[in-house]
Write a structure and sequence with these properties.
The chain is an alpha/beta fold and about 300 residues long. About 40% of the residues lie in helices and about 15% in strands. The strands form two sheets. It has a seven-stranded mixed β-sheet, with helices on both faces. α2 crosses α5 and α5 packs across α8. The two termini are about 30 Å apart.
């Protein structure tokens, strides 16, 4: 009973645990025909995006170093998770999404197609090869978006080290397929999340005991759902958490002209998307892809960090 209560779940009369109802004022309901049309357009856009990525990489699964620990969810399973985020975390217009360890960028590209659009969808990847493959995928999607207004394009992928961030500002939703993340990295991410002033939701594949009691994220469990991997019997439970208590100080002293606090690690991408629009994103991605094809990547090692500070 104590464990269940710590996870923020409600008990039913049959002894099973059920998620709490979404908080806040319910969204205004769209006319069924309008809603059906939006869902149809989103499904078509998502299908087109995955087809383009599949054509580029020749397989849905990880196409870089690291093997199955960086395996990816099926398209249908990712859609299920995004549907849960729409329902439980109000993912949509005004949302700013980050995928930590984004690999080839499929979750970020998928979120960019959310019905009604998101303000910004971003992926950060430590492995340079995976980042570059993701940028090639993104370039292909942007080429299609030039002639198809239904394809979302508010998306940027970046090669970088999340431990260099002081906070997750400006993001509202922090997602990570972290089944293989080492404890030291999880401690660092917990500190970054807790310091953030804008991050309200955290989506993880680590069990709630570790998120709440070991790494001490300042969150509570909202809901959970089972997932499955592409061409694999492997599966993990996905947990959606919501921040509790007051937001951290984050980058509130660095709101800038956009009026939203932003950590320096994400500032360039955030400004490119918001100030440059489609052309800004498109030009940036093309420049990065050209650089990938013409330059030899430099080796990079992650600096030592005192994760428990």
């Amino acid at each position: 009973m104590k464990v269940a209560l710590s996870l923020g779940r409600k008990a039913s009369t049959d002894g099973k645990w059920k998620p709490k109802k979404p908080r806040g004022r319910p969204k205004k309901q769209l006319h069924p025909k309008v809603l059906a049309e939006q869902k149809k357009k989103m499904a078509a856009a998502v299908g087109d995006v995955y087809a383009m990525v599949h054509k580029n990489t020749r397989e849905i699964g990880g196409n870089g170093s690291g093997g199955p620990i960086y395996g990816e969810l099926t398209q249908g399973c990712m859609q299920k998770i995004i549907g849960a985020m729409v329902k439980w975390t109000k993912l949509g217009e005004g949302s700013r999404f980050i995928d930590v360890g984004c690999g080839q960028g499929k979750p970020s590209l998928h979120v960019a197609q959310v019905r009604g659009g998101v303000e910004f969808s971003f992926g950060l990847e430590y492995e340079e090869l995976r980042t570059n493959i993701g940028l090639v995928n993104l370039e292909t999607v942007l080429e299609a978006a030039e002639s198809d207004e239904n394809i979302g394009h508010n998306c940027i992928l970046k090669h970088g080290d999340v431990t260099e961030a002081m906070s997750f500002d400006p993001f509202t939703h922090v997602y990570q397929y972290d089944a293989g993340f080492e404890p030291e990295l999880m401690y660092a991410i917990a500190n970054i999340f807790n310091r953030s002033s804008t991050a309200e939701y955290f989506i993880s594949y680590k069990r709630p005991h570790f998120i709440l009691d070991v790494y001490e994220f300042q969150v509570k469990l909202v809901t959970q759902l089972a997932t499955s991997m592409h061409v694999s019997s492997e599966g993990h439970m996905c947990y959606i958490f919501r921040r509790v208590g007051k937001p951290g100080a984050g980058a509130t002293a660095n709101a800038g002209s956009l009026g939203v606090p932003c950590d320096p690690l994400f500032k360039g991408a955030w400004e490119t998307c918001k100030l440059g629009g489609f052309d800004g994103v498109n030009n940036h991605v093309r420049t990065m892809v050209d650089k990938f094809y013409t330059e030899k990547p430099a080796r990079k090692t992650r600096k030592e960090v005192n994760y428990k500070e």
